[in-house]
Target: Helix-turn-helix domain-containing protein
Amino acid sequence: MNVVALLVLDGVPGDQLTTPGQLFGAVAGVSCQRAGYELRICSGAGSVTTAGPGAFRVATLWGTDGLDGAGTVIVPGYGGFRDEPPAGVLEAVRAAAGRGSRIGAVGTGTFALAAAGLLDGRRATTDWRHIEELARRYPGVGAGPGDAPVADGPYLTSAGVLGGKDLCLRIIGEDHGEAMAHEVDRRLFLRLPAPPAGAAGRVPPAPAPGPGGAYDPGPGGTDGLGPTLRWLEEELHRPLTLDSIAARAGTSVRTLTRRFRAVTGLSPLQYLLRARMRRAQWLLERGDASVERIAAETGLGTPANLRHHFQRVNGTTPGVYRAAFRSMVGMFTPDHEIAAADGPV
Model:
């Protein structure tokens, strides 16, 4: 299991404390084929007080020793970023870097990495309000604005929008692929179908961000279904039947149904419908294709059929879904950051 250590200091914004848990915790729920994360909340003092308004005190189970064995260490923003961090914090971060851990910082957490000397000669970013201050205090750091996380070697820094969501998704993408990061993003920020009853941890695989939204079920497939699932995803535009899927798998309809239910929690035709819905979502998110074209490319035939199934599975219409996704993407533009300038660092 991947270990992520969140090293928090007093004045950490509440969203930067909770967002990593939501995102990293969602990975195991998306696919049983991917190892989940162990998230350790660490502090040098045993507890921290969050930033206001509505500040609260959090007791942590881990001290700086929680960084031992962590493949990733993330330092969120904190209130005293203009002051030198505690020596124990700097030593722990340097030691983690020396062991080869990936090191990330959210918002003003970048100041701690700079104070530790880890960003000298490297590019980095922070909250847009403090970029000039970062450059002034640490002239060896190539400080600049970044709408997306800035990666330089094993170091990732981000502006801290929505609690460091972009940085956490970048890490998930590096570990498990962009398909996983994209699916985690959608699960948490858009309404998506719930897993079928009794199928916890067996959610159908997510679409990869490649042509057509096809996905890779992973090395070796799933219980021998891998080649069939890949074929099914490539042939979504065709009229597929239970018999044709069973023939492709080289098995009987009864055996095919049993294997599908064991692996995905769905019957083959239920899985096919979910796959078509994922393809429709992928097309809606990534272009201006008409409903007519999407209906054809997903094998649903007519716009009316697409709207019917999309509403039943997703609880909304294709048009509303596309608008909601674009609105979410718009939240990460510089204009949104400016509008949120009075929020937590």
User: Anything to note?
Assistant: The longest strand covers residues 2-7.
